[in-house]
Amino acid sequence: MLFFTFFTFFTVSGTAVSDPIVHDAEHYILEAQFGERWQQEDRQLNRRLAELREKHGTPPNIVHIMWDDTALGEVGIPAIQSVRGFKTPNINQMANDGINFMRMYTEPACTPTRAAFQTGRYAVRSGMHTVSFPVEYSGMDAGEVTIAEVLDKAGYNTAFFGKWHLGDTEFSYAHKQGYDEAFFTPYNQVPSMWIPQAEVANVITGLYPDLHGEDQYDLDQSHQPRGVVWTIEGTKGGPSREWGPPPDIKNYWDIETEAQKRTLAFIDKSVADKKPFFISYQPILTAFFPDPREKKRLTANKNVGAEGLVKLDAFVGKLFEHLQSQGVAENTLVIVMADNGPFIHYGPRGMVETLYRGGKGDFTEGGVRVPMLATWPGVIKPGQIVGDILHVTDLYTTFANLGGAKKYIPRDRIIDGVDQTSLFLNGDGFSRRDYVMIYQGPNLAAGVKGRFKRDWKNAEVGLSKNEFYDLFTDPREMHGEMIEQFHVKSMFNRQRQRHELWIKKYPNRPDATPGPALTGLENVRPETVEIYTAPVDPKKLPFDPQEVSEQPLPFSGSDL
């Protein structure tokens, strides 16, 4: 019960900056055992960071790149690529120049992982636990505090480029969530096939009824999202604008090129400003309809995942050259990683399990254990392989610490991310985490503690089954055990009880915050206005549209 004592200092609101960050309860079990050692490490690390800041004149720049749906082992390990028909030499070089993390955990799918990265919290806490699909009419709440907001207070220039996928409400836009500059897609890649070419090719049906024979029974066409927005650009405090309006498929493929161009330009701007920069670049990587300008494939693999990785790898090479040419390479931490495992269920061809079982959407290791590599010349020792557990939320707290911004992390909520500066700078064996809670949507599906894992999703109330796994001896989770692992059952029971107690003290948001979609665009198209405007006079209805949606009416005055 020792962990209770650490929370006597907290109040839910008005908390002093000097108060400790509120972590998940399991963290305090570790802190009670290793806190003194961590304090000694921190004193040494703080001296090191202070020396680096004096040397370079600013805290470190941070470039974080996170893409979709890639199994652990697909990048960073050339031996595996040799039998997969593609190569990523620049990303692989990062394994030689820095750290190849072999046990980075994310959430099982893209929206939850992106929310966890931005907030430092399991996605279930922010309500962003479910994959967003267009048109969503909801988004990440304005009350969440992103890593951009934290670093901004410490003097960083902050930018987001690429796949945001955290909602289509105006309050959830990236430049409304702390980023100085944003160029982002509110959705996933699904709208890439909401184009006339896809209707003609029979990839979609009914979105463009004028491109096929008349359906006399299709009475109400008002619900079709013909004005969906692919990309929004904006600056903090400035206007929001649609960029490259669809439905031309070339515009979609050009999003990636533009995001990369803006990434390099933002580095130049920040260097000129003599300010540290934080860039979150989350590549589109692929689309559900091919770019008609490409006449051949780049890889022997030929499939969208490999093709996207090879293109991204070329940009990673350009990024390192650019950092070097601007003279900031030695003061820049670069991280590349995937958001979840491969899209093996109903996904595109070529998505496969590599080392672990499962993929996107699964709570097995293949769904939530992803490749991640990091370099920081002269700071991170080269050629490291790290087997420690870390979670995507840890980047939030670690970035804040590196940027001298830890005091700006909110103290009125649970921050799941723990500071892993020691792991990055001291290497293998220095993690401050040996546990992970894995959710599927709002449901707790599994727990990890060290080498052990428990399947809660398939457990039956009142019974013990083969729901325990030793990830060292059974890394693919093929043979659940019961009798052999009864000794870990009570350990997992206590872990879950502590976790759920903290949810009672600091309740989760139930869902993404609702609101009208795609409002506030300076150059809005008429068809986009139709998305958030009622197609009929609400006064003619026997119900109130606001009752149906359980959300405030849009700024236009009505919405069905």
In short:
The chain has 560 residues and is an alpha/beta fold. The chain contains 15 helices and 17 strands. The strands form 3 sheets. Strands 1, 2, 4, 5, 6, 7, 8, 9, 10, 11 and 12 form an 11-stranded mixed sheet that branches. Strands 13-14-15-16 form a 4-stranded antiparallel sheet, covered by helices on one side.
Structure description:
The chain has 560 residues and is of the alpha/beta class. The chain contains 15 helices and 17 strands. It has helices at residues 25-56, 78-81, 89-97, 110-119, 123-126, 147-153, 196-200, 249-273, 304-325, 365-368, 394-402, 421-426, 486-505, 526-529, 545-549, and strands spanning 61-67, 99-105, 138-139, 157-163, 181-185, 232-235, 240-242, 277-282, 332-338, 369-375, 384-386, 390-391, 435-440, 443-449, 452-455, 468-470, 513-514. The strands form three sheets. Strands 1, 2, 4, 5, 6, 7, 8, 9, 10, 11 and 12 form an eleven-stranded mixed beta sheet that branches. A four-stranded antiparallel beta sheet has the order 13-14-15-16, covered by helices on one side. The longest helix is centred in the first third of the chain and has 32 residues, at 25-56. It is globular. It starts with 24 loop residues before the first helix and ends in an 11-residue tail after the last helix. Mean pLDDT is 92; it is low at 1-16 and 555-560. This is Sulfatase N-terminal domain-containing protein.
